[in-house]
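Schema walkthrough. Field components (list of strings):
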Amino acid sequence: MTITAEAKPTIAWLGLGIMGQAMAANLLKSGHFAQLLVWNRSADKCDALVAAGAVAVGSPAEAVARADIVFGMLSDPKAALEVALGKDGVVSAIQPGKAYVDMSTVDEETSTQIAAAVRAAGGRFLEGPVSGSKKPAIDGQLIILAAGDESLFKDCAAAFDVMGKRSLFLGDVGAGARMKLVVNGTMGAIMTAFAEGMALADKSGLQQSDLLEVLGLGAMASPMIALKGPALVSRSYPPAFKLVSQQKDMRLVLALGDALDQPLPVMAAANEQFKKAKALGLGESDFAAVYEAAVHGAGGGSGGQA
Amino acid sequence: MTITAEAKPTIAWLGLGIMGQAMAANLLKSGHFAQLLVWNRSADKCDALVAAGAVAVGSPAEAVARADIVFGMLSDPKAALEVALGKDGVVSAIQPGKAYVDMSTVDEETSTQIAAAVRAAGGRFLEGPVSGSKKPAIDGQLIILAAGDESLFKDCAAAFDVMGKRSLFLGDVGAGARMKLVVNGTMGAIMTAFAEGMALADKSGLQQSDLLEVLGLGAMASPMIALKGPALVSRSYPPAFKLVSQQKDMRLVLALGDALDQPLPVMAAANEQFKKAKALGLGESDFAAVYEAAVHGAGGGSGGQA
Amino acid sequence: MTITAEAKPTIAWLGLGIMGQAMAANLLKSGHFAQLLVWNRSADKCDALVAAGAVAVGSPAEAVARADIVFGMLSDPKAALEVALGKDGVVSAIQPGKAYVDMSTVDEETSTQIAAAVRAAGGRFLEGPVSGSKKPAIDGQLIILAAGDESLFKDCAAAFDVMGKRSLFLGDVGAGARMKLVVNGTMGAIMTAFAEGMALADKSGLQQSDLLEVLGLGAMASPMIALKGPALVSRSYPPAFKLVSQQKDMRLVLALGDALDQPLPVMAAANEQFKKAKALGLGESDFAAVYEAAVHGAGGGSGGQA
Amino acid sequence: MTITAEAKPTIAWLGLGIMGQAMAANLLKSGHFAQLLVWNRSADKCDALVAAGAVAVGSPAEAVARADIVFGMLSDPKAALEVALGKDGVVSAIQPGKAYVDMSTVDEETSTQIAAAVRAAGGRFLEGPVSGSKKPAIDGQLIILAAGDESLFKDCAAAFDVMGKRSLFLGDVGAGARMKLVVNGTMGAIMTAFAEGMALADKSGLQQSDLLEVLGLGAMASPMIALKGPALVSRSYPPAFKLVSQQKDMRLVLALGDALDQPLPVMAAANEQFKKAKALGLGESDFAAVYEAAVHGAGGGSGGQA
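Field assembly_structure (string):
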């Protein structure tokens, strides 16, 4: 059943972490449904949405039983598997006509396993990991990397429009997970390259603010450099995307390259820096804290030594 | 003597390669001078500018003798040294009141050597390497990284406004050269990271066009990715910035890090890829051809193998 | 029951690949047992040992039922798990008094899983991966990296003496697997460093035979350099340890470093070269073929270009 | 004039640092000469050799004037150039019949420059950098990497036999310098790989002494691992070959690879670790202190964290 302002299907949302909360809130505001059911492992996280008009349910299975289309946004592959395949999980209630859209960021194997179970039970499946963190989620500006059943992708178009600025259908199940990894692996390497530039600027007696201005005016100008530059200058890293998550994605993208015999020497070098930053105790900081790996023990930092 | 529409000093331009030709042409159009003198080792490169109103002179020394402020834009450190310090070179005619602005991209040592000679003869010196290649030069959209005598930087403000969209004064002689290296080293590493992402997308069965769209919508969106992405897809690399020049800058930025004990593992890994691309015979291609190093022997390319 | 010439326990051997065949043959010659039972998935591989006095059995379970101590040497974690935990597997017949020594090279998780099952059934468990390939196996010159039940390690001392030149007891289950990975990860990086030196010697107009002589006389002289050097010169790589296995170990050692936040930038760079060599189709060659990754596309090789 | 017990030429030695002192002392003991002249910038370093029978001279020029063959062992390229080409230097006294053997470790350009000057003055030239540090120098166990005039190499055979266990003639001037770089670059990368293995052993709860035993028994066993292993365990690095010198050689070997378009990703990654160790203040420690770069900030060290 297509999600439209006219059709008004019942939809459900599983998982109300930072991202899920924001995405479900946008869906709720859209009015493109008869009812929005919500579920979270810790039930108290449902309160805000229920206060705004959503209806809490007791399990993923109940959500599937009552809704036409169910969205999931879980924190990691383990949680995604548990919600999908565990007791009273999604698959236990799937039957022909039901549809599950898993927007969690998981590895391809996890997604493939969930897809197989949903399809075996007669349902349709779509993976839809997103590119973007908290602020784009709140602003409905995510990029949705969908793959799986194309008819379900089409049915979700209006919902995706509410959550994101663009949704792409990438092919078979797994393609979304792979695209997410390629994007994040590239991002981790670019962030580390940028951090090295900033460290060297400081070490060589240049003003980092001058470097940021030059970069901002040139071919490398990007929202990431504009956003993370000041964090590096102040060496303060409130987490938008945690370093530990970025490092996990580096590990996974390297594993993907490994499986395909694709050398990725720059991403591999960047991963070692993320590992070092983790070892420095920065796992819960923003991934921009990889800068600390670049300057640690190198006499860098705002004081400079050049 | 400050360059202004009112003061109308006599200015001179030494070096009419691709960049110098475009920069001098913009100066000529500006009218901020009494006369624009031009000189090039191969005199025929002066013809177009002379036809447009410039006056050719016979040597750098003659340019200095007749002009208030002389600009140089030479192809490499060797040419910059020869024009500045050689027979009938800039320094042979410098005396108090004269000023030399060397906009060539040279290493810090070269710039320091030229500065010392100009100053010893009583002149003022400014280094002003630029960020940006042919098109920004033509469009007057360069970024000028100036360092040396600040009074001369101020005197050149109007000229820099004609050539660039922004000029920064970075400090003592050498700071411009270092900033240029830091920027280009960062650029080389980012380009290589991007190339790895594109190679892995293809190898893993994704459409590179989808990756480019995702990157273009997200935090990494940049003019460089927008511009070079299609080059990687088509594997065609008409040179805007030659790979051999980028690799030279990687070597120099690593030498700078080496001198300052600043580890740069990602830039170092990227440099090895540029070396590999050079060995593949791509030195004269655009630096985006580092993509070929990422896919060479990895079974990548548009056909994919996933 | 301790394996001694006097005690003469019944022992069993599971898995008769290249390594297992050689190790079991050495045991057979030792006479330190009442009977040597043998089993292999493809039963015909038992023929040679049976001809020499061993007794073939029909399943791992039968081997356990009839023997005091059972040794396993399987090709990979999947085979090790199947033989241990599968139908008619080792664990199905384990009871107090039985002992299983798994000498396969497996990851720590696999070994831990098998240990838990053997112990839960009342048996003793020892992991004993070996360092050394075909020739040391034949010559009884392996190094045995044992961990698990120390009493079982002691009981096997005479058997290990027959198979290896040294056996070490490293601690709890998993320590043997980790030691194997650390050793092989180090080996892969050293091999790649050596390959780079050989490639650069050739590229810079030196005789590789001169480099080998210099290395052989100095601090780096090692059996590996002595053995692999001529392979690199002739660019011929008959497999003693397959490149695909070495690359797998690089992947696993990096995963171990990843789990422990231990940066390993040199091993990571080496891994990318092994991946490249795999992509060049050299997976089934000896791991020394990583040299081809060093020279591929770099104009290297015996012809040189310097 | 060939150096033999019979011919007894007059020979001279320039440069009495740690290495030169030991090498000249071995020459002195050999008796293969009529007289051994010695010179050092700080004349007091001649005292011990003079007491043992050598004759001090006032300048390199005087040494050349009075000796048939002059050996130099200077600390770095700058000193080598000064002694060869400076006032009262070697070249000022060279004439047909004279010969200069420069055993300093210098870059190819420096050696080529000295060779050209010696030959232009009618003399013969040989470069002879050595592989091996203080102890092999004292024990007469160096490896001599000679290149230049082959007749001079032959004339020095007896002298080289006294100083080293092997001398190789590698070809034209520059080949000795290149071989030295290739050997040292390989050594630096192998040392760093070994350091990573030791760091990971500790981090993963293994005994480093067990790893050293395993390595010592296997294919990687080498004098370097035997010698440096205990230094890593005790984290004490009395200098046999200074880290700052090793890092300089890494820089030079990478520059050589750069000039020849030979990618050296593992050596490049190792160089970044040496740079990091230098930044940690370990430049004057033994090059084995690169281990500190592997464990710094990674929570490693003898206490372990696994």
